[in-house]
Amino acid sequence: MRFGRTPEQHAFSEALDDLLTAADVVSASRAWSAGDHSPGLKLWQRLAELGVTGLLVPEDQDGLGASPVDLAVAFERLGYHGVPGPWIESVAVAPALLAGTSDSDILQRLASGEALVSVAHASRALDADVAERTYALNDRVGLTAPDSAGPPPSGSGGSTSASPALVEPGERQRAGVETNTAPSAILRHAVVGAQRRSVDPTRRLFDVTPGEEVAGGDAGPALDLGTLACSAMLHGAGLRLLDDSVAYVKQRTQFGRPIGEFQAVKHLLADVRVALDFAAPLVHNAAVELETEAPTAARSVSAAKVAAGDAAYLASRTALQVHGAIGYTREFDLSLWILKVRALVGAWGTPTEHRARILESLVEAR
Amino acid sequence: MSTLEFTEREETFRLEARDWLAANNPGRLPSMDTAEGAAAHREWERTLASGRWSVVAWPEAYGGRDASLTEWVIFEEEYYLAGAPTRISQNGISLLAPIIFGHGTEAQKERYLRDMTDGTLVWAQAWSEPEAGSDLASLRATATRVDGGWRLNGQKTWSSRAPFADRGFGLFRSDPAAERHRGLTYFLFDLSADGVAVRPIDQLDGTPGFAEIFFDDVFVSDDDVLGGVGDGWKVAMSTAGNERGLSLRSPGRFCAAAERLVELYREEGLDKLDHRGSKVVDAWIGAEAYRLYTWGTVTHVEAGGSVGAEGSINKLWWSDLDLSLHETALDLLGADAELEGPWLDDYLFSLSGPIYAGTNQIQRNIVAERVLELPRGSQKGGAQ
């Protein structure tokens, strides 16, 4: 029995840390927010050289054919360092989504880092302006009903549609979406529309209109891989928020003492540590179950997303609290992680949608 | 591999445990903190021992099976999934025995270990004193040197199992001149000895789960000093680590409770996500996280690692998890939640989790200071 990362995975994580610590990721993020992609794309290329972009691409297409566990290792570090770009879409989702389709020709260039891809999972596509291709999925993602190729619900930000496959059957019916069977999303090319502003300025979101269908895609595993990557990224971001908070409370003094001496501050940060430490094995287990195609894999992915999201959110709220007003500014780099966590908590299925999927699975399993 | 796969030997062990439990498990017994319940629990310990299931991780020479850590956790999973009774021998097996194995003399091993595996000797924990809760270093009960041994004086309190136990273990100040941690010695004593008076205290659930113990010139021979004279603190700290970490709260307990909670949710005719459903899911996620975290710890320990202050992280999680699991169950039961029953019993017990084994405030200080390495500072209330 062995439950944990292998020495190779630890080494991979450290290699990513070395690269990203030396790179000026913060500047790349800020440039990305302002629409200047060049430093971020340079970073993309350097990570491609370490194999990150080809992790899930099969070896015969110049990828690494690595496991979901390796994917989680990488995305934890991407989250820790706050790397901008459509990583989840290009690296976690696209390989599984496009394999076996007429669009699989792009996989080699995805692996080498030459091509970026975006996938609209919840109405909008991330970084479609740098993606070579943008796709839209219409089931389980709340775009539109399967046979309607009309524009997604847009307008005053309010009408976020439900995510049909993540809610229980009755709800799906009411939402006016097909209720048949397991997720069988229809994959389409997307026509990119107007840009929208995310709470996280590095996330450049675009409205999309579903277009021509791409035959043969299998969205189920692809979406679970995206959700897993998002969970790992959240966990990594949470670890960073905790590290930065711990460093800050050791040097920030009030009443003549470092505020890290105050029990109220200690207890807040201890709770963050506890939450992150217990989210970690859920993320790892979800990756293992996707790797072994365990029957409970989807449920485990949802559990990872809920726990990593809750822990990272707690980390962000606590980081803001212990930093005080400086944490509430954009000039201070902490904001990059605070805002990213808020965005990722709702991305790739909201906590409510994932809890519903878990409950459905638990009740059915009786 | 990085997965949760078990060897054939481990799977065989699991099935053997499952079969034996299915055939022998008496189910829920009366509270062990009543005379009737204590007798029934001692009987259950005898049955467990007869199948060699009472101390699976111990050496075979002392009634165990030499089981690995992995096998121990497997056994605990099966034990709780079977709904088998709580263990009246817990104090002895989990808190005292590791110390006897680690610090005891050969004579002490012979005298005490086997008798605690079959319910013959039930042990009371006697650490707390009035005025000294989590702050064990401030203990005041004394041990005074006399011919061939020591005289114990003073008072212990919140001594779990003491009303129906045979013997106790605890720390006494053997050198009043020494500073706080130094000068404490670990003693084993007979609860029926001359000069010992036990006054039961009813817990929130109405049963005398703990007691005050008064010592009036109680003689203890040198044979019952555990570890060295003056080394009591060091010895006690290793038991505190056991209690907070793996040994007392195995994941099986919470996984089984989470399973029952989902079952209750279904029985109540609920199946979709409302606020109660969310709480059920979160309790299930919490138990699942605890299970997986434990397997991570087992992997770490079997690879030669150890569990230090991380035990405090563990304790914070299971104590909060236990409480929220049972609060959620009571919420599902609605108005019936106030009626006596298994969920209410377990809820009342879960209320003690954040208090005993070092309060959760103390645990948070330990996590902050030893894991996050935040400054200790001069204020009171820091981890020692």
Automatic annotation (TrEMBL), chain A:
Co-factor requirement: FAD
Boundaries of every Acyl-CoA dehydrogenase/oxidase C-terminal domain copy: 223-361
Pfam families the UniProt entry points to: Acyl-CoA_dh_1, Acyl-CoA_dh_N
Domain of life: Bacteria
Similarity comment: family membership: Belongs to the acyl-CoA dehydrogenase family.
Species, as recorded: Nocardioides panzhihuensis
Protein name: Acyl-CoA dehydrogenase
Disordered, as annotated region: 142-180
UniProtKB/TrEMBL annotation, chain B:
Residue ranges of every copy of the Acyl-CoA oxidase/dehydrogenase middle domain listed in the record: 124-218
Recorded superkingdom: Bacteria
Keywords (A to Z) from UniProt: FAD, Flavoprotein, Oxidoreductase
Cofactor dependency: FAD
Keyword Zinc attached: no
A molecular function GO annotation: oxidoreductase activity, acting on the CH-CH group of donors
GO CC annotations, alphabetized: plasma membrane
Occurrences of domain Acyl-CoA dehydrogenase/oxidase N-terminal (ranges): 7-119
Chain ranges of the Acyl-CoA dehydrogenase/oxidase C-terminal domain: 230-372
Gene3D superfamilies the UniProt entry points to: Acyl-CoA dehydrogenase/oxidase, N-terminal domain (1.10.540.10), Butyryl-CoA Dehydrogenase, subunit A, domain 2 (2.40.110.10), Butyryl-CoA Dehydrogenase, subunit A, domain 3 (1.20.140.10)
Protein family according to the UniProt entry: Belongs to the acyl-CoA dehydrogenase family.
Name this polypeptide is given: Alkylation response protein AidB-like acyl-CoA dehydrogenase
Organism: Nocardioides panzhihuensis
